[in-house]
Specification:
The complex is a heterodimer of chains A (284) and B (345). Chain A is built from 13 helices and 2 strands; from the N terminus they run αββαααααααααααα. Chain A has helices at residues 16-37, 54-57, 62-95, 98-113, 116-126, 133-139, 153-178, 181-189, 194-205, 207-222, 226-231, 239-249, 253-279; strands spanning 40-41, 47-48. Chain A is mostly helical and 284 residues long. The two termini of chain A are 46 Å apart. Chain B has 2 domains: 4-223, P-loop containing nucleotide triphosphate hydrolases (Rossmann fold, 3-Layer(aba) Sandwich), CATH 3.40.50; 239-344, Nucleic acid-binding proteins (OB fold (Dihydrolipoamide Acetyltransferase, E2P)). The longest helix of chain B has 18 residues, at 166-183. In chain B, the strands form 4 sheets. In chain B, strands 6-7-8-3-9-10 form a 6-stranded mixed beta sheet, sandwiched between helices. In chain B, strands 13-12-11-15-21-14 form a 6-stranded mixed beta sheet. In chain B, strands 16-20-17-18-19 form a 5-stranded antiparallel beta sheet, with no helix packed on it. The chains are: A mainly alpha (284), B alpha+beta (345). Chains A and B meet through helix 8 and helix 9 of A and helix 3 of B.
C-alpha cells in the first residue's frame, strides 16, 4: 500500500495523443484542401498558392448547380427509400423470435462485407440486356424484347439502397427493439386504431432513430463514387465523381478542392438541420 | 351499471394453458384484485378483458354486452400498465387526455379535464411537465389519471404499484382505493402482493395455474381459505399435515378435538391443518405438542417464535409484553387456539 502508482488517473500528456492524430490526419489535410481551394489554377500544370474566389465562383454556373442538385437528390432519394423500407422492416424484425432476428441480422451484416465494386458489377450484370432480369420478363411474356435497365437512375438508386439499407436497419434496430410494447397497447386500449397508434405513438417516439438512419444513409451515399459510374449515366454523376474528374482528369485541383469543401458544408448543414429536427420535443 | 361477467374463459399459448375455464362476475363499482404467483394467468385474464388477447374459448360481457370479439380500441376501457406506458413525446396533460384527443374532444375541454384529473390524483398544476421530469410516484398518478380520463366503464390495472418502493406503495394503495371509491368505477387490479389485495379489494380472486382457487371478500379468504394453496398464499400460516378421523384432528401424533368455529372441510383421511401464527399458543412442554424453539425475533409490536416439532416448522406470533420468556433451545408445548383451526384438502 506504500508506493502504489496511481492507476486511476491517466497522465495528462496522454490526452495529447488523440489530439495529435486528429491534427495529423484530419486537420492538416483539411487545411491543405482549404488552401488549395483558394489557390490559383495553373492550366499547364498544378496550381500556384494564392488567394482568389475563382474556384468557388464556378459554382454559380447552371451546370454545377445542376450537378449539385442531382447529387443531393440522388442521396436524399436513396436515404428516404432506405428509411421507408427499413423502418417497417425493423418493426417486423423486432417482433420476431430471437433466433429469427439473429439470423436476419447476420444476413444483413454480411451485405456490409461486400464491397461497392462487387455490388456494382453484380447489379449491372443483373440489369443488363444480355444476362439480366429483362430476359426473365421477356420469358414471362411481360415485355416483347429483353432490355437493359442499366445505366439508369433506377439502377443507380437501387445500388445505393442496397448499400444503405443494412445501415438504416442497424441504426433503427436498437431503439425499435427497446421500444416498450406496452406503449402501443396503451394507445390501443385508449381508443387509437392500429394506424393511428403507429403514426401517433411509434413514429414520434422513434423520431431520433429515424432521423439518425436518414442522415447516415444520406451522408454515406453522398460520398458514393463508384456506383454512379457503374450504374448511372453521366448526368447522374454525383459530386464525388465530379471531384475526382476535376482533380485527376481535368487537372483542376483548386476547383476539386472547392467542390470538396462545398460538399462537406452541405453535408454538415443537412446533418445539423436533421439532428435539430430530431432533438426538438425531446424525442430520443 | 357496469357489471363485468366472464364465462368459461380459456386461453392457450401453444400447449400452455394460461387460463382454464375461468368464470366470474364482478358487480358494478366493486374493486377486485386478481391475486396469484407469477404465471398463474392473472395478467392474461386482465388482457383478455382489455381485448389485448383473444380468448381460445369463453365470453366477456361488459354491462351485459358481449365484448369478446370487440377490438381493443372500441371497448372504452381505462388501463394502467405495469411499465405505466406514459408517452415520452407528450407532456403530462396531453398524456392524460390522449384518449379524449383520439375521440376528437376539443382542446379547451381537454385542458379542463386534465386539470380536474390532476386535482383528483393530487398533482395540481403539473400539466405542462414532461414525463421524464416526474418522480416514480408522480408518474404512477399520471398513469392513473390517464386511465380514468374517459370515465371508463371498467378500470384495469396491471401490477400498477410494483415499481414503487415499499412505503410509497402502501401510500398509493390507500390513495388508489380512495379514488376508486369516490368515482365508483368497476376496477380490476392484478397483483402478486397479498397485502395489496387485502388493503384495496372488495373482492379477492386467488388464481393458480390458470384456475380460480377462491373468490371472496378479503377477510373471508383470510379466515376461511378454500385449500392449502390459498391458506399459504394469503397472509402467513402454519400448514401442517394432519389426519381427520371421526371429527378429531390428528397432527404430529397429537389428537385435537374439533372445537366450535373450527372449519373442517374434510370428513376423513389425510388433509392439511392451517393455523395463523397469531393463533399458535405456547405453554409448558407438557401442555401440548412438544417443539424446540429455533429462533426468536422481537419486533416490538409482536414477538415471532420459530419452532421445530418433528419434521415440521411452526411459527407463533406472540403479542408484546407477554409473560412467557423463551430462548432458542427451549422446549415448549404448542397448542392451537380452538375455533381458529382450518382443515383443508
Amino acid at each position: 500500500m506504500t508506493d502504489m502508482p496511481s492507476q486511476t488517473a491517466a497522465p495528462r500528456w496522454l490526452g495529447l495523443w488523440p489530439a495529435a492524430m486528429l491534427t495529423l490526419f484530419f486537420l492538416a489535410p483539411f487545411g491543405i484542401m482549404l488552401a488549395v481551394s483558394v489557390a490559383h489554377r495553373d492550366v499547364s500544370g498544378f496550381y500556384e498558392w494564392g488567394f482568389e474566389w475563382d474556384s468557388y465562383a464556378r459554382f454559380l454556373s447552371v451546370f454545377f448547380a445542376k450537378v449539385m442538385a442531382v447529387s443531393l437528390s440522388v442521396s436524399l432519394a436513396a436515404a428516404a427509400i432506405c428509411v421507408l423500407l427499413g423502418f417497417p422492416f425493423t418493426v417486423f424484425l423486432s417482433a420476431m423470435g430471437h433466433t429469427a432476428q439473429t439470423r436476419i441480422l447476420v444476413v444483413l451484416l454480411s451485405v456490409l462485407a461486400l464491397s461497392e465494386v462487387i455490388i456494382g458489377f453484380s447489379l449491372s450484370t443483373l440489369l443488363s440486356q444480355t444476362a439480366g432480369i429483362g430476359n426473365l420478363f421477356h420469358w414471362l411474356g411481360l415485355i416483347p424484347e429483353p432490355r437493359a435497365y442499366t445505366p439508369s437512375l433506377f439502377a443507380l438508386i437501387a445500388g445505393l439502397c442496397y448499400i444503405g439499407f443494412p445501415f438504416a436497419v442497424l441504426v433503427l434496430y436498437p431503439p425499435v427493439s427497446r421500444l416498450d410494447p406496452e406503449l402501443i397497447e396503451a394507445a390501443r386500449v385508449m381508443g387509437a386504431s392500429g394506424p393511428r397508434a403507429f403514426f401517433g405513438v411509434i413514429i414520434p417516439n422513434l423520431r431520433g432513430a429515424i432521423v439518425g438512419a436518414f442522415i447516415l444513409v444520406f451522408v454515406f451515399t453522398l460520398g458514393s463514387y463508384l456506383l454512379p459510374q457503374l450504374l448511372g449515366r453521366s448526368e447522374h454523376w454525383t459530386l464525388s465523381v465530379h471531384i475526382t474528374d476535376q482533380a485527376i482528369y481535368q487537372s483542376n485541383l483548386p476547383f476539386a478542392a472547392a467542390m470538396s469543401v462545398f460538399l462537406m458544408l452541405v453535408a454538415l448543414a443537412l446533418v445539423g438541420l436533421a439532428s435539430l429536427a430530431g432533438r426538438e420535443r425531446g424525442a430520443a | 351499471m357496469t357489471t363485468l361477467r366472464i364465462e368459461g374463459l380459456s386461453k392457450l399459448f401453444g400447449t400452455f394453458k394460461a387460463l382454464d375455464d375461468v368464470s366470474l362476475e364482478i358487480p358494478d363499482g366493486k374493486f377486485v384484485c386478481l391475486l396469484g404467483p407469477s404465471g398463474c394467468g392473472k395478467t392474461t385474464l386482465l388482457r383478455v378483458i382489455a381485448g389485448l388477447e383473444t380468448p381460445s374459448a369463453g365470453r366477456v360481457f361488459v354491462g351485459g354486452a358481449d365484448q369478446t370479439l370487440v377490438p381493443t380500441h372500441k371497448r372504452g376501457m381505462g388501463m394502467v400498465f405495469q411499465s405505466l406506458a406514459l408517452f415520452p413525446h407528450l407532456d403530462v396533460a396531453d398524456n392524460i387526455t390522449y384518449p379524449l384527443a383520439i375521440r376528437g374532444v376539443d382542446k379547451a375541454t381537454r385542458r379542463a379535464r386534465a386539470e380536474e384529473l390532476l386535482d383528483l390524483v393530487r398533482l395540481p398544476g403539473l400539466g405542462a411537465r414532461r414525463v421524464h421530469q416526474l418522480s416514480g410516484g408522480q408518474r404512477q398518478r399520471v398513469a392513473i389519471a390517464r386511465g380514468l380520463s374517459i370515465n371508463p366503464q371498467v378500470f384495469l390495472l396491471d401490477e400498477p404499484l410494483s415499481a414503487l418502493d415499499a412505503s410509497l406503495r402502501e401510500h398509493m394503495q390507500i390513495e388508489l382505493r380512495q379514488i376508486q371509491q369516490s368515482l365508483g368505477v368497476t376496477t380490476v387490479v392484478v397483483t402478486h402482493d397479498q397485502k395489496e389485495a387485502l388493503t384495496m379489494a372488495d373482492l379477492v380472486i386467488v388464481m393458480k395455474d390458470g384456475v380460480i382457487q377462491q373468490a371472496g371478500a378479503p377477510m373471508e379468504i383470510y379466515h376461511n381459505p378454500a385449500n392449502a394453496f390459498v391458506a399459504g398464499f394469503i397472509g402467513t400460516t402454519n400448514l401442517l399435515p394432519c389426519e381427520i378421523n371421526a371429527g378429531a384432528i390428528s397432527v404430529l401424533g397429537h389428537s385435537l378435538a374439533a372445537a366450535d368455529g373450527d372449519r373442517i372441510a374434510v370428513s376423513r383421511g389425510p388433509a392439511s391443518l392451517s393455523v395463523r401464527p397469531e393463533h399458535v399458543l405456547l405453554g409448558a412442554p407438557e401442555e401440548g405438542l412438544r417443539a424446540e424453539v429455533t429462533f426468536v425475533r422481537d419486533l416490538g409490536e409482536s414477538r415471532h417464535v420459530l419452532m421445530r416439532a418433528g419434521d415440521q416448522d411452526i411459527t407463533a406470533h406472540l403479542p408484546p409484553g407477554g409473560a412467557l420468556r423463551v430462548a432458542p433451545g427451549d422446549t415448549v408445548g404448542v397448542s392451537f387456539r380452538p375455533g381458529e383451526r382450518v382443515v383443508v384438502q
